[in-house]
Q: What sequence folds into this?
């Protein structure tokens, strides 16, 4: 695959794979801000895992994937672990993306390394029990769905005194 074809394939994968949906500001309000494409969002996703925010996927070295090599990006998608060893939490469907072909993951990583860097630090994860400033909230799973799920993580002791939902 030529370099141009690889970039086009990577861009295509960010669109059909839904990366743009979560990681581009404004998308869930009907107006994706293409000037900040894939730069992360401050609209969190709250659930039994706490609250997570779509990360900055641009190659910004301080707030995005700038310290990741293409191989690091592929490894993170395959393993569900970030470069710092922390897990990718819901709603990031890394298990689905881990099934992509080596060629598709290489195209995706190549594209993410080639897009314009945008400096945007998204909020840090919040542990369960801490109320986020803005988030889409997932209710606890119904009994049928929860049959084989592990229990949600407990809030750490220091979070117990924080603002509860």
A:
């Amino acid at each position: 695959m030529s370099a141009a074809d690889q970039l086009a394939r990577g861009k295509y994968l960010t669109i059909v794979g839904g990366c743009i949906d979560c990681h581009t500001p404004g998308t869930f309000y009907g107006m994706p801000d293409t000037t900040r494409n894939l730069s992360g969002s401050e609209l969190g996703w709250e659930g039994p895992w706490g609250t997570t925010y779509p990360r900055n996927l641009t190659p910004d070295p301080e707030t995005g994937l700038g310290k990741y090599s293409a191989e690091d990006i592929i490894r993170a998608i395959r393993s569900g672990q970030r470069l710092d060893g922390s897990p990718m939490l819901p709603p990031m469907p890394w298990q689905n993306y881990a099934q992509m072909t080596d060629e598709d993951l290489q195209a995706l990583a190549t594209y993410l390394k080639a897009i314009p860097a945008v400096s945007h630090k998204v909020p840090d994860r919040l542990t369960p029990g801490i109320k986020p400033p803005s988030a889409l909230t997932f209710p606890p799973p119904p009994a049928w769905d929860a049959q084989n799920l592990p229990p949600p993580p407990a809030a750490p002791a220091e979070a117990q005194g924080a603002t509860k939902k």
